[in-house]
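Explain this one:

_____
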Amino acid sequence: MNTRCCAIAFLLALSSQALAADAGLLAANPTGIWLITFGIAFLIAEAALPNYGVIGLGGIVMFVIGAVILTNTEMPIPMMIGLGLISALLLMFLLIRALKTRPRENVSGDAGLLGSVTPVLSLQAGDDCHGWVHLQGERWQVSSAKPLHIGQRVRVEARKGLLLEVAATDAVTAGE
């Protein structure tokens, strides 16, 4: 929270010094200058906050409206439109990159193990219901209610510590 307060205070101090330094801009419309300043601040905040473009879109709108208010000054209209378009393109690029990182299928942990199908590598001596499989780069001990055989494909149904409970894939119903 302190960082945000310091950033806001810095922006206010910087914008007030810019207004005091250029009396010509102060004679124009201070509302336009404030809108441009806050528009730029919102665009900077968009890069730091996980809000998928809401603040950035507001920043672009503020920037363009502030620039339009200042049209009677020396800032050319094509430059204002160009800056607005460049900002919008940058925001769209950042949004596309952010949306590509949206939730993906789990590949680790219990969520990645449950439902996985793998062949049985070996069985415990004297017990056909317990054996070993290779899954996600690791060797796991498995337990089944029915006897297993080497090479049989099994589906992971549950995990209890380091033991996986499995069932033969031909014994699992089609709805699972």
